[in-house]
TrEMBL record:
UniProt-listed InterPro entries: HD/PDEase_dom, HD_domain, HDIG_dom
Protein name from the UniProt record: HD domain-containing protein
Originating organism: Methanogenium organophilum
Residue ranges of every copy of the HD domain listed in the record: 24-127
PROSITE patterns: HD
UniProt cross-references to Pfam families, sorted A to Z: HD (PF01966)
Family matches, as Gene3D superfamilies: 1.10.3210.50
C-alpha cells in the first residue's frame, strides 16, 4: 500500500478525534501496526487490511454522542470515503466487512482473513500492558474506580486469549494474557479484593 495513500487516509481520520481516550487515534495506530505485523505473517491483502484498521474506530466519537454503533457508522464512512477516492470496488466491500465485524462482542462473525486479523488486533490492544492502561483510562472516563476496572478485566479481558482467529495473534495473546493475569493477581493481593472479610474486621 502506498505511503501517500495511507497518509491521506490518516489525515482524514484525524479530523474525527478531538481528545485522547481509550478509543482514540493512538488506539487506531496501534491496531494498525498489529494488523501489519500479523498480516505479513498470515499473507493478508494489505490494501484491504490497513484501510480497515485505520477506519475501524473512526466513528467512536459519533457513537459516544449519538449511540449509533461505531462499527456500522464507521463502515459507512469508510465506504463513502474510499468510493470517492476511486478505491477498488471489490476491496471496498472487504474493508467494509472487516470494519462491520471487528467488534467481537456484537457480531456478526468476520468471514475473511483480513476481517479476522482486524478483530484479533483490536482484541490484542485490550490485553497486556496497553490493555491495562486503557482499562483504567476507560474507568476514569466512566467515573469508575479500581474496583470497576478490575471487574472489566475479569468480565472481558481475561477471556480474550481464547477468542483469537489467527495463529499469529494467538501467540501474541499468550504473552499479553500472562501479564494481564499477573497484574490482576498482584492488584487484588495489594487491595484485598475478593477476600470475604475486610481487614478491619479480622479477629
Amino acid at each position: 500500500m502506498k505511503s501517500t495513500e495511507t497518509e491521506t487516509m490518516l489525515a482524514y481520520i484525524e479530523t474525527f478525534f478531538r481528545q485522547a481516550g481509550a478509543h482514540d487515534l493512538d488506539h487506531i495506530l496501534r491496531v494498525t501496526r498489529i494488523c501489519e505485523e500479523i498480516g505479513r505473517v498470515e499473507g493478508a491483502d494489505m490494501r484491504v487490511l490497513i484501510p480497515a484498521a485505520l477506519f475501524h474506530d473512526i466513528a467512536r466519537p459519533i457513537e459516544d454522542e449519538t449511540g449509533i454503533p461505531h462499527q456500522e457508522e464507521g463502515a459507512r464512512i469508510a465506504e463513502d470515503y474510499l468510493r470517492k477516492a476511486g478505491y477498488d470496488a471489490e476491496r471496498i466491500a472487504k474493508i467494509v466487512h472487516a470494519i462491520h465485524t471487528h467488534r467481537f462482542s456484537t457480531g456478526p462473525e468476520p468471514e475473511t482473513l483480513e476481517a479476522q486479523i482486524l478483530s484479533d488486533a483490536d482484541k490484542l490492544d485490550a490485553m497486556g500492558a496497553v490493555g491495562i492502561a486503557r482499562t483504567f483510562l476507560q474507568a476514569g472516563e466512566h467515573g469508575d474506580g479500581i474496583e470497576g476496572a478490575v471487574e472489566h478485566i475479569h468480565e472481558k479481558l481475561l477471556k480474550l486469549k481464547g477468542l483469537m482467529y489467527t495463529g499469529t495473534a494467538a501467540e501474541i495473546a499468550e504473552k499479553r494474557h500472562a501479564l494481564l493475569q499477573e497484574f490482576v493477581e498482584r492488584l487484588e493481593e495489594e487491595t484485598g479484593s475478593g477476600k470475604n472479610t475486610p481487614p478491619w474486621n479480622t479477629p
